[in-house]
Design goal:
The protein is an alpha/beta fold. It has two domains: about 1-30; about 45-170, 3-Layer(aba) Sandwich (Glutaredoxin). The chain is built from five helices and seven strands; from the N terminus they run H-E-E-E-H-E-H-E-H-E-E-H.
């Protein structure tokens, strides 16, 4: 049998590139997808809060949700600011979910208790939800509208006034 002189079955650098591209595409598909994109539905989840209550993103439809991925050492100023905002608003106006990434439930409980956080706090010690949301650093915030669509993704602590502006633009 003779080998084709050209086309997808020929040997050579083009075939290697094609095979490498296919392998990379398959590996990317196995990694669980891409980060939630602004304008798309936020990935659904159900977790237990520190109080043991189940919390699902779908149960919060009809309310805007600020999903905060955090660690104790990075968010010393942001968490109290969010707690104050949460206390000033009604649950229908804004729900905040604080997802601690990579720390033990006991450490998270201690931090949340010392700060008096009034919103639901979830421990994600193995970063499973953080991986689902493709969190690459903390803090990372996702603003999800009343219909479950991601409206903003912010990496790092927002500048003063940024959250208020973003929340004001929500439908």
């Amino acid at each position: 049998m003779t080998e084709p002189a050209s086309g997808p079955l020929r040997r050579g650098p083009g075939r290697v590139t094609l095979l490498l591209g296919l392998v990379l595409a398959l590996l990317a598909g196995c990694s669980g997808g891409t980060a939630p994109t602004v304008g798309q539905q936020a990935p659904a989840f159900t977790l237990r809060t520190l109080s043991g209550a189940p919390l699902s993103l779908n149960s919060l439809r009809g309310r805007p949700v600020l999903l905060l991925f955090w660690k104790a050492g990075c968010c010393a100023a942001l968490l109290p600011e969010l707690a104050a905002r949460y206390r000033r608003t009604t649950p229908q106006a804004l729900e905040i979910i604080a997802v601690n990434v990579g720390e033990s439930e006991e450490a998270v409980r201690q931090t949340a208790g010392s700060l008096g956080l009034p919103f639901p706090v979830v421990a994600d010690p193995h970063a499973l939800l953080a991986r689902q949301y493709r969190v690459t650093g903390v803090p990372t915030l996702f603003l999800v509208d009343r219909t479950g669509v991601v409206r903003e993704r912010l990496l790092g602590a927002p500048a003063p006034g940024t959250l208020a502006r973003l929340l004001a633009r929500l439908p």
